[in-house]
Amino acid sequence: MDILIKGGRVIDPAQELDGKLDILVADGRIAGIGKKLTAGKGIEVIDARGMIVTPGLIDMHVHLRDPGLEYKEDIVTGTRAAAAGGFTSVACMPNTKPVNDSKAVTGYIIAKAAAEGAVNVFPVGAVTQGSKGEHLAEMGDLKEAGCVAVSDDGRPVTNPELMRRALEYAKGMGILFISHAEDLGLAGDGQMNDGFTATELGLKGIPWVAEDAATARDVFLAEFTDSPIHIAHVSTKGAVRIIREAKARGVKVTCETAPHYFTLTENAVRGYDTNAKMNPPLRTAEDVEAIKAGLADGTIDAIATDHAPHHLDEKDLEFALALNGIIGLETSLPLSLALVEAKVLDLDALVARMSTNPARILGIDRGTLAQGAVADITVIDPDARWTVEAEKLASRSKNSPFLGREMKGRTTYTIVGGKVVYKAG
Amino acid sequence: MVFKHKDILGLQNLTAEEIELLLNTADSMKEISKREIKKVPTLRGKTVVNLFFEPSTRTRTSFEIAAKRLSADTLNISASTSAVQKGETLSDTARNIEAMKPDIIVMRHAISGAHHYLAKRVSYSVVNAGDGQHEHPSQGLLDMMTMREKLGTLEGLKVAIVGDITHSRVARSNIYGLTKMGAKVFLAGPPTLIPPGVERLGNVAVCGRMRDAVEDADVVMMLRIQLERQGKALLPTMREYSRYFGLSEDVVKLAKPGVLVMHPGPMNRGVEICSDVADGPNSVILEQVENGVAVRMSMLYHVSGGGPTE
Amino acid sequence: MKTEATVILDGVGVRRALTRIAHEILERNKGITDLVLVGIRTGGIHLAHELAGRLEEIERAPVPVGSVDITLYRDDIRTQTPVLPVGKTEIPFSLEGKRVVLVDDVLFTGRTIRAAMDAMMDHGRPQCIQLAVLIDRGHRELPIRADFVGRNVPTSRKENIQVRFDEANRPVEVFLEKN
Q1: CATH class of the region C4-75+86-91+103-158
Q2: Which of B141, B224, C73, C139 is most buried (most C-beta within 10 Å)?
């Protein structure tokens, strides 16, 4: 069915568009955009007055846990959570069981997502076979099968020589390299940010230098090999500075952060809350400010969730035994809108970081409302207030530090390829 | 002043008044162990479970004697005999024990915060007998009781704590307790074993050299150094550790005359403390052990009344 | 609610009563051989010292005085939330074979005395235990009777009897509060 979205504030940084406009969707594509479009017969009209209409949001870093770990999440529940959070596309990391290091696994993900997924799923393949950091994976094959990037996310490529060759190889194959920048030796068996709070709680710390040193190494290797590199989940002041300086001297580096890194500090761990345990860990207030500054000045290109579902049995444990990671798809939008409220970003810049830039970095034909583009659209009520409740989350897992927290702003419609896949209510 | 906590998880979340109450009660309890019949009927009909996930003869025995002197029934579960070896979670272990209707669980666990986890999930009282590198409140209390007994007050004392601060729950509980009671704590240890921000835990100063911490101290508390830490990233050798951070008679002389020398045990003689000092006139190490029973009686007594959850 | 206080024994009356009790103790025990006094915390301790002073004056020899805190022996410990503070018990002598005179200020239900007797037994096996109180206000709940009584005061359960001590812990007066 064709759709007319009327009267919303339409923001499309790709076209430098920001104004009260109507959007007509026909045959799965943007058929028209302009003032006072009229609805023909049998067209569904969405009253978007007071709403914000954006190109469908894109989360370039999620863990769908499918195949193999479906008890945490699968492609169906994960994409439903994405739709509820306003995301029309997600890029899923390869640390599944088996690891997505082959076109067979990639093909499975793409086929299942096409058949049962609520939103577009763009797989990320592994850099090394089994993400073991030993032998390069078949990146050419992975790209051909549909992977938009490679990453050993969850683990860094520790061997610098292998890292260098992987960057060269990925560049040659024309596939993006996403780096999980962490020095495992420095991180050790740390459980939270190294510092005063860790000292107080008697928990082993992960120092910021574990992230900064690895980020610096990866940026230098990208510079040396003249390859594009995307740094995942940036959480420290130092990493922002390293990337800012690298960008200034022309290194092809992009990066993302996650909402928890600009919303929470290590204080959230107090009381040994395992839902505040993730890697990289929550850092200090100073880091939070640096992340915001990085978002504001464009050093940080994208906001991604690092949506990492875990079963209650893997989280309801003593702190040291609980697994790292939190879900984020359904809380990312309001937490990011809070940046607009706090005047860190304007709405256009926010949409760029949640849609335009991820599309550009991943090289996918999404992230715009231009006439003729695939009709992936998110309609947002910026003023709606709601409370995060476990039982209302679409994700199969409920490991969120934001449970019980009041949010401002939510998705009212998520439209993928011209079809409404989520409607608030 | 009354004690309102269901659990004793650490000294960090107790007030100075509550710590004083626990110490005062411990002072009163001490007399019981000197009687011919070393028992009072106070906890008759109560069940105290000692759940130890780490081996500890000293602390477990001390808690067991404390419970028995208060007439509680005691039960010891150690990790080697428990279902934990079979992969049971702490949550399941706790629920299984709860079904047996205990009143108090005294737990030792290798993971920091394990007691906080447990206390939130069970109706019985949880008493922390040491959690990871976090807290060891009964040790902190018995140390303070010994200092107060010997020196009259904790207010204004200069207490040096020397050794591996990073991995020490004894140090943390003493820092929280002592600084709340008006003492000033001076820490010394190898730079690799001083945790970041430790000076913000209370009225704490970090000294580069041991002699700076010990100089004019009223109390010198030596921590046990884990021998397995040597030869890795944290320490070169025990020989060097002992040279810089071991307590010898010469170092003791820097402190106030009549300084108390303490050690939570078990000691590595000749490493962190030399035998002349450990067995010398300033050593109150055996008094610490004696006071341990009184302090633990006090802790068990105060949580036995129940009260609101923390 | 207004509280009304009536003095039922003034300073002179208290002193006279204690002197009489001291003589009665000597008469009953035929002197101070093997005699010890144990005051029940806190009023009983002060009175025990008063009695000991009088005994020493008469007999020209000191009588040992100890103190007992009965909190750990209370029969209502299981219903106390939170538990009551515990005072010190100080009996720096053996009770084995001794003639123990327990001293308390007011005898009421008898439960405190039961607890104190249990505490005595844990300190050894005395030859006998006697009880001296300044006031017996009745309402016994256990089969307990005082051997030496300063004054019997019939009361209602709602009333409260207080012995006031001065800064030197010497008894000043006894008054009755009506609620």
Answers
A1: alpha beta
A2: B141
